[in-house]
């Protein structure tokens, strides 16, 4: 009862694909890489999902009702983090439901701005949407500028984000951007190369971030994530989703919130 897409077959080869379909290399039981609940290749339709990094590839399994068989391209660093999350080797994962946002990436290592990311669900016109809220821990100045000032929102607006005055209205989709969820955890916000090259990580988790079952289920159902951004000190660390919503509404009322809808990449 295994599904192997043409893209997965092309990556793993006909011989390996045929062995999987014959049940030789397929696990009887597995944890769905999408919803993280148990599944069985002998009792229900199962999708093969191949995560491909720079030098490594990992074959995972998912309920066919959750996601189709597909190839998901991730960076080598992201793939290794995902493997650690599967094998239980990764320690200290921070919940994002919402919780105190992690600071990613490390500016001492990457020479980039420090961004905090919090996940929560947003109710819009009676329906839940998965959301990510991005807030720098310090003001962001335009590259080449000596400051002072905070150019975080102007830079995002130039990139296609739109100012939000009403959190009760879903933002428009931003072409070329996506949110990467791999092995059931949040890995990155990706931005396409205007010149036609590979997508790069606008934000990338130092360690894959856990999300709640509800957030993941809503994201997989809608295949879309709403990404909100605000200047440093605007949203803060909100322990509950209702308090996060209040902070977003206050930021929107003050003209300090931009947003975009992005497709969900991966699972």
Keywords:
267 residues; alpha/beta; 2 domains; ten-stranded mixed beta sheet; four-stranded mixed beta sheet; 7 helices; 16 strands; elongated
Short summary:
With 267 residues, the protein is an alpha/beta fold. 23% of the residues lie in helices and 34% in strands. It has two domains: 2-73, no CATH class; 95-266, no CATH class.
Secondary-structure map with pairings?
Blueprint: E1 2-3, H1 6-12, H2 14-21, E2 29-31, E3 38-40, E4 46-52, E5 57-63, E6 70-73, H3 76-87, E7 95-96, E8 103-104, H4 107-110, E9 115-124, E10 127-136, H5 152-158, E11 162-163, E12 177-182, E13 185-191, E14 200-211, H6 213-222, E15 224-229, H7 241-253, E16 258-266
Parallel strand pairs: 1-4, 4-6, 7-14, 10-15, 12-16
Antiparallel strand pairs: 2-3, 4-5, 8-9, 9-10, 11-16, 12-13, 13-14, 15-16
Helix pairs in contact: 1-2
Region (Disordered): 87-110
General description of the model:
By secondary structure, the protein is of the alpha/beta class. The protein folds into two domains: 2-73, no CATH class; 95-266, no CATH class. Helix content is 23%, strand content 34%. The chain is built from seven helices and 16 strands. It has helices at residues 6-12, 14-21, 76-87, 107-110, 152-158, 213-222, 241-253; strands spanning 2-3, 29-31, 38-40, 46-52, 57-63, 70-73, 95-96, 103-104, 115-124, 127-136, 162-163, 177-182, 185-191, 200-211, 224-229, 258-266. Strands 7, 8, 9, 10, 11, 12, 13, 14, 15 and 16 form a ten-stranded mixed sheet that branches. A hairpin with a 2-residue loop joins strand 9 and strand 10. The longest helix has 13 residues, at 241-253. The radius of gyration is 19 Å and the shape is elongated. Mean pLDDT is 79; it is low at 85-112.
């Amino acid at each position: 009862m295994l599904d192997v897409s043409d893209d997965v077959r092309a990556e793993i080869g006909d011989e390996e694909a045929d062995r999987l379909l014959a049940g030789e290399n397929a696990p009887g039981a597995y944890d769905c890489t999408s919803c993280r609940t148990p599944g069985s290749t002998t009792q229900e339709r199962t999708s093969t999902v191949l995560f491909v990094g720079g030098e490594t590839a990992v074959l995972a399994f998912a309920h066919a009702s959750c996601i189709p068989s597909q190839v998901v391209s991730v960076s080598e660093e992201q793939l290794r983090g995902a493997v650690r999350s599967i094998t239980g080797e990764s320690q200290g994962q921070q919940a994002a439901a919402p919780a105190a946002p992690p600071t990613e990436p490390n500016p001492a290592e990457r020479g980039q701005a420090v961004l905090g990311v919090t996940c929560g669900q947003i109710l819009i016109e009676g329906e839940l949407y998965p959301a990510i809220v991005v807030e720098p821990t310090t003001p962001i100045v335009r590259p080449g500028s000596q400051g002072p000032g905070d150019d975080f929102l102007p830079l995002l607006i130039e990139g296609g984000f739109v100012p939000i005055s009403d959190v009760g209205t879903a933002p428009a989709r931003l072409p070329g951007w996506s949110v990467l969820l791999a092995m059931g955890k949040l890995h990155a916000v990706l931005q396409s190369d205007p010149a036609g090259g590979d997508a790069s990580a606008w934000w990338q988790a130092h360690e894959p971030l856990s999300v709640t079952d509800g957030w993941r289920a809503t994201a997989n159902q809608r295949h879309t994530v709403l990404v909100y951004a605000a200047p440093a000190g605007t949203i803060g660390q909100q322990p509950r989703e209702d308090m996060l919503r209040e902070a977003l509404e206050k930021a929107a009322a003050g003209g300090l919130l931009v947003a975009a809808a992005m497709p969900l990449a991966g699972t």
